[in-house]
């Protein structure tokens, strides 16, 4: 009997090819995103790995400063580099240590002008300056190879640039150009390209400008530290042995002493940790697709079981037991899961290829080809099968629980009453609302997590109560179908005929549009908060900022100040250091009176003094600082700097949590490390705004890395950045909406099959094909709007609660994106029409006599 049931399952799938395709497709989307995310991150990781495998070749040991996170982990202070005293100590012990060559490397930020005089755009890829060492002095192999026709830089005013960057910039050997280089980005320098580097590893847009050793040291060092020190081993001395000897010589040191293999592995680990962020984001949206796909699969199998009611009953009558009937349905689910997962795997690989192409073109990521790992294949197949089997389990169980004789008389009976289910859902919903409302009264991480818990419970409540809600809601929104007369009435009746089916069909839209409402509200609130803060607190007419969120050279400040028509200028310097062993960052005032350009309220103490600092009230409360408290900062080189707190101000997003005066800034940030986050500019009264912007642009053009924006342009740029981030999220959410569309298509298509005799009767009594199509369209629109209303209401409420928990970070009052909400509801109606096209056409082609006569 078991083999008979398997043949029945296979023949049933083969006999209903359209139904099979629809069901398989519901599995494809979720699994495609899983496969795509895993393939994308594996491919990018592999590309970076192949690059890092080429780095530090020939380096036996590298001595380098620890990064801030590593310093904090070992309880030590950060270092701006390797002290030159350490370099001399290593050189003095060459034979004792057993190294062959020692190379001192300096590197840092750099911007280079293209042939047109404008900054060479990197597409967010690194743009770095390095130290050129001739082959007879270099330790790392292949990193200083000059292409024929050029040479390495030997004196100030000469550079070598990697060949791909030179081609993009329109530069060649002999070209004159300008560079702005150094951690603080110094004055522009006129340079000549004397050689093109055959760089062994680079990503799209990568720029490497090499200087002679003396120039690199001047640009990228404070004169007391080197960037890194590389050693090659003498014959007979292993890398590990040289590492041990160097460690013994230097003793207890905050420096990292690594072998070349460890340097390469550290780079690989760092990029893999970064890529995990992309993996988590992509898998989160894959999870959304799988969740909504689960409801679609469940809905599909529930309808299939209902349509095969008599067939399954006949199998029971001829000897099949409940377990065999259940297994028959699950066998179909297994086949559907395998097919869907296999197609999803292929689609996911295609998705990964598209994502990789976009990332390579726009983000400077390396192009290393696609990598499909065995783990990707296994995980995709397992998820596809497991999700499908779980989704089909309840319909399979329901199919096996009906007595043969009862089932043979009529179609499967309507499931039991919705009362218990609705009551449980209502209780969960009330608990979820209470949790969410209570969380909205608090601030911080804890309340935000509580809102997340409330969201989970609310979704569960919607799942349970949606069938009971479908009738009343569709009755209300059914008003839009009244102009269509009896056709509209039939559509309303059909949409509310099976509440469970309607709710399950609409759930995909509910989840997708809930997330759209949450993300839209967060985005609108962020933009409103920024606009309000700028309008209320910032008096500046212009902002001078770095391109691509980069730093502004300190030398730009006097150039801006000397521009005719400028009344006042203040720079916002970046302050980094540590307090009590913890790394901190803030702002410092550079060259001007802050109160002339930013409006803020002192609630205790006085305004900022040159050697003092201001703290906002939240930070003062958290740190226990008061007016008169002395805060001890530790600079990157370990030097302590005491700064007294002279005033406490109300929270102000333009200032951040704390800032120091100009003299304190100079002490905390030595000249070689100084960078500006931006420059505030106040214009003289009566100055033409357009002319002054042109003057400022001309005055700063030679620095390559800065841009001048008006107050409105700055706000628009920030809003545009937020919109870009939201656009990516909305594009990802398109998956859930696509699943929703297919869910409606699937449900309506199967519903048309289920109602074939009914539609045939309607055709027989005079309903035209166009009226049949119209009825299906309206039914689909009602289901789609029902799901959209639930999603928008749920998402808006959760978004408001979430925003209120973020007040601790300066987020303003919630702003609902009403235009987006209206567009969403209209879009839901459009989705309903689009989803109904094929089922409606299929229904309109029903032949009346065949439908009435057929089973």
UniProtKB/TrEMBL annotation:
Under the heading InterPro entries, the entry gives: ABC3_permease_C (IPR003838), MacB_PCD (IPR025857), Macrolide_Exporter_MacB (IPR050250)
Domain ABC3 transporter permease C-terminal spans what residues?
Answer: 284-402, 731-848
Domain of life according to the entry: Bacteria
The UniProt entry, under Pfam families, shows: FtsX, MacB_PCD
The residues that cross the membrane are 277-306, 333-359, 371-394, 422-442, 448-481, 502-526, 728-753, 776-803, 815-838
A Gene Ontology cellular component where this protein is annotated is:
plasma membrane
Which keywords belong to this entry? Cell membrane, Membrane, Transmembrane, Transmembrane helix
The record places domain MacB-like periplasmic core at 21-248, 502-698
Where is this protein found? Answer: Cell membrane
Q: Which PANTHER family match?
A: ABC TRANSPORTER PERMEASE YTRF, MEMBRANE COMPONENT OF TRANSPORTER-RELATED
The similarity annotation says: Belongs to the ABC-4 integral membrane protein family.
* Name of protein: ABC transporter permease
């Amino acid at each position: 009997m078991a083999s008979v049931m398997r043949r029945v399952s296979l023949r049933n799938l083969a006999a209903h090819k359209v139904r099979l395709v629809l069901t398989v497709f519901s599995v494809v989307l979720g699994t495609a995103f899983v496969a795509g995310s895993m393939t994308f991150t594996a491919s990018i990781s592999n590309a970076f790995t192949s690059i890092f495998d080429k780095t530090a070749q020939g380096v036996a040991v590298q001595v380098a400063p620890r990064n801030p996170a590593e310093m904090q982990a070992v309880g030590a202070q950060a270092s701006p580099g390797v002290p030159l005293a350490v370099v001399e100590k290593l050189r003095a012990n060459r034979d004792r240590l057993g190294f062959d060559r020692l190379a001192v490397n300096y590197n840092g930020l750099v911007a280079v002008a293209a042939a047109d005089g404008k900054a060479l755009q990197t597409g967010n890829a690194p743009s770095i300056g390095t130290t050129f060492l001739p082959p007879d002095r270099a330790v790392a192999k292949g990193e200083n190879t000059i292409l024929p026709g050029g040479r390495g830089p030997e004196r100030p005013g000469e550079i070598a640039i990697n060949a791909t960057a030179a081609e993009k910039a329109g530069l060649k050997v002999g070209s004159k150009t300008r560079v702005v280089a150094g951690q603080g980005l110094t004055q522009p320098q006129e340079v000549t390209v004397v050689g093109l580097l055959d760089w062994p590893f680079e990503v799209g847009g990568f720029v490497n400008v090499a200087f002679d050793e003396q120039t690199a040291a001047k640009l990228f060092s404070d004169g007391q530290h080197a960037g890194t020190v590389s050693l090659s081993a003498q014959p007979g001395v292993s890398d590990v042995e040289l590492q041990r000897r160097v460690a013994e010589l230097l003793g207890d040191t905050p420096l990292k002493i690594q072998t070349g293999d460890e340097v390469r592995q550290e780079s690989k680990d760092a990029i893999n940790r970064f890529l995990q962020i992309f993996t988590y984001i992509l898998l989160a949206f894959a999870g959304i697709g799988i969740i909504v796909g689960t409801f679609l699969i469940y809905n599909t199998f529930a309808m299939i079981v209902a349509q095969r009611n008599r067939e399954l009953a006949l199998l029971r009558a001829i000897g099949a037991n409940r377990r065999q009937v259940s297994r028959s349905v699950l066998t179909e689910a297994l086949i559907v899961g395998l097919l869907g997962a296999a197609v999803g795997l292929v689609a996911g690989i295609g998705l990964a290829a598209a994502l990789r192409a976009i990332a390579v073109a726009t983000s400077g990521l390396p192009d290393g080809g696609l990598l499909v790992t065995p783990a990707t294949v296994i995980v995709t197949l397992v998820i596809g099968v497991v999700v499908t089997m779980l989704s089909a389990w309840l319909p399979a169980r329901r199919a096996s629980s009906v007595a043969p004789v009862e089932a043979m008389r009529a179609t499967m009976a309507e499931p039991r009453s919705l009362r218990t289910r609705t009551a449980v859902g209502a209780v969960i919903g009330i608990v979820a609302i209470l949790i969410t409302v209570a969380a909205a009264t608090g601030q911080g991480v804890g309340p935000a997590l509580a809102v997340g818990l409330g969201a989970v419970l609310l979704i569960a409540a919607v799942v349970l109560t949606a069938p009971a809600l479908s009738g009343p809601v569709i009755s209300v929104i059914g008003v839009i179908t009244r102009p269509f007369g009896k056709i509209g009435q039939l559509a309303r009746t059909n949409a509310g005929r099976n509440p469970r089916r309607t709710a399950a069909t609409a759930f995909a839209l509910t989840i997708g549009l809930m997330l759209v409402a949450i993300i839209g509200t967060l985005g609108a609130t962020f933009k409103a908060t920024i606009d309000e803060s700028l309008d209320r607190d910032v008096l500046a007419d212009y902002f001078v900022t770095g391109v691509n969120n980069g730093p502004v050279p300190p030398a730009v400040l006097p150039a801006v100040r000397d521009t005719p028509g400028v009344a006042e200028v203040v720079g916002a310097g970046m302050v980094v250091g540590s307090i009590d062993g913890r790394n901190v960052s803030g702002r410092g005032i550079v060259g001007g009176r802050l109160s002339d350009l930013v409006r803020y309220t002192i609630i205790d103490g006085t305004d900022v003094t040159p050697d003092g600092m201001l703290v906002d009230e939240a930070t003062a409360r958290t740190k226990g600082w008061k007016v008169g408290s002395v805060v001890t900062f530790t600079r990157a080189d370990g030097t302590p700097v005491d700064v007294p707190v002279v005033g406490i101000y109300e929270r102000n997003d333009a200032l951040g949590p704390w800032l120091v005066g100009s003299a304190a800034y100079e002490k905390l940030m030595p000249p070689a490390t100084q960078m500006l986050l931006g420059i505030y500019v106040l214009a003289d009264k009566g100055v033409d705004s357009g002319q002054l912007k042109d003057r400022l642009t001309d005055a700063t053009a030679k620095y390559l890395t800065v841009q001048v924006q008006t107050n409105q342009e700055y706000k628009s740029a920030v809003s545009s950045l937020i919109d870009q981030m939201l656009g990516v999220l909305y594009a990802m959410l398109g998956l859930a909406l696509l699943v929703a569309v297919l869910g409606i298509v699937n449900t309506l298509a199967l519903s048309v099959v289920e109602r074939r005799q009914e539609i045939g009767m309607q055709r027989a009594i005079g309903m035209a094909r166009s009226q049949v199509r119209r009825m299906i369209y309206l039914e689909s629109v009602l289901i789609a709007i029902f799901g959209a209303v639930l999603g928008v209401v749920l998402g808006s409420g959760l978004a408001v609660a979430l925003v209120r928990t973020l007040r601790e970070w300066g987020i303003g009052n919630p702003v609902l994106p009403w235009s987006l909400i209206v567009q969403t509801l209209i879009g839901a109606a459009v989705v309903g029409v689009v989803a109904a096209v094929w089922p409606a056409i299929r229904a309109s082609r029903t032949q009346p006599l065949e439908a009435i006569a057929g089973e």
